[in-house]
């Protein structure tokens, strides 16, 4: 059997995300409004993302946090094409988070339901006019 770290990025990312304790993560989201996942991205992967921060062609916009009262620092929204790791994380995290969002909407009496596949959600967004990517990188 292959070790998780030697799988291609898409398979490794999916295996890591699927192995998370989603019941505990959902409980944290319910109780605290956030959940923390550790070691989903390796130090080398973090470094590869960090090194592209100054490449303007990889981003579509920059937000200075202090200008908006968000504290210190800045963040940039990625442009398409997304870095492979970011695209994979977004795709494999989405179904788990959509299930939580659907449960919340049901509990709140909100009719909106999110499709359980990320591609279907993107199609919905694009039909509504949201065609720009939303993943960002914080500095």
What do these coordinates show?
The chain is mainly alpha-helical and 139 residues long. It has one domain (41-138). It has helices at 9-18, 22-32, 43-51, 84-108, 118-127, and strands at 59-64, 74-78, 136-138. The protein has a 3-stranded antiparallel beta sheet, with no helix packed on it. Helix 1 (9-18) runs parallel beside helix 4 (84-108). It is globular. It starts with 8 loop residues before the first helix and ends with a strand. 4% of the residues are buried.
Task: Give the arrangement of secondary structure elements.
Blueprint (H helix, E strand, L loop, with lengths): L8 H10 L3 H11 L10 H9 L7 E6 L9 E5 L5 H25 L9 H10 L8 E3 L1
Antiparallel strand pairs: 1-2, 2-3
Helix pairs in contact: 1-4
């Amino acid at each position: 059997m292959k070790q998780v770290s030697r799988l291609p990025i898409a398979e490794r990312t999916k295996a890591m995300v699927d192995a998370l304790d989603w019941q505990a993560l959902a409980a944290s989201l319910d109780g605290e409004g956030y959940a923390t996942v550790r070691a989903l991205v390796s130090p080398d992967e973090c470094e590869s993302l960090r090194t592209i921060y100054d490449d303007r062609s990889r981003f579509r916009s920059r937000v200075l946090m202090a200008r908006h009262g968000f504290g210190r620092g800045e963040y940039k929204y990625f442009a398409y094409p997304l870095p492979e790791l970011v695209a994979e994380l977004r795709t494999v995290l989405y179904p788990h988070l959509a299930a939580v969002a659907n449960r919340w909407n049901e509990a709140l009496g909100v009719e909106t339901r999110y499709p359980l596949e990320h591609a279907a959600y993107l199609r919905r967004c694009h039909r509504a006019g949201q065609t720009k990517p939303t993943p960002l990188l914080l500095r």
